[in-house]
């Protein structure tokens, strides 16, 4: 008959606390670059799609052809009344570009 060491389960429970801490550290490590790439991708998508739509006169679905490879996650939406296009990277970033006569498409200022 085997005996159970009472110290072993407590040690295992203490080690289980390291798993969430490790995940939080990994998320913190990757958050800054991932969020930065998402913001830049959304800004690029909004600016390119706005120029294509309101300066080029093409449909928004046709404007997706102008995106670089790897931008498949970016979604676009249009506000015809405001002449603006919003690009979103899921859960991380979104940006809006607005068309102004004589100026072209301009991105909204970034805020922290």
TrEMBL record:
Protein name: Uncharacterized protein
Source organism per UniProt: Novosphingobium aquiterrae
Highest taxon of the lineage: Bacteria
